[in-house]
Amino acid sequence: MSPNARPAEEDSQERTLLRRMAEGDRAALAALYRPYRRRLQRFLSRMTRRADVADEVINDCFWIVWQKAGSFRGDSRVSTWIMGIAYRCALKSLRQHGEDDAADSDWPERSDPATDPQADHELRDWLSKAMRRLPTEQRLVLELAYSGGYSLDEIAAIMQCPLGTVKARLFHARVKLRNLLPDLAATHPPRLASQGELK
User: How far is CA 48 from the centre of its chain?
Assistant: First the structure.
């Protein structure tokens, strides 16, 4: 199976669920909601330290997905469309609740033992601490690119900004991480060379 086959297959299934939702199928809504909840929680943890706000955003996001399922034009992957809705819902919610800084977040970092059984938890802890020191928009670009697997064009669509802005945010985020990690790990040298995390 080619590297793009799995995302294409998932997107096809999600498009089918959207069509069913447009016809009022609530089971299709539940089927789409389940795999996205955790993904959206992780993404939103880069924007807010309040889990209650994130839960509200996820509910708002899927209310919009339910209402607009029939108007999805198919110009992007379904996941890109949903993440864009979640991002806009989050910005609106943070304006209403007051801005907070996810840099102080106490949300636990989540790893999936099924896909990452040999996860280096020490390295993940360093990366998490370094990520918290980045500006929000840089954290989001890294999250979408590396954890979400989105292309730069898709990230630009999600965040509704020019491609050049996404590239600049990603560049500056990488530079800052390279500078931050040695300081954070001063007392316990990390095994970055063998991990290739920031190449």
Answer: 13
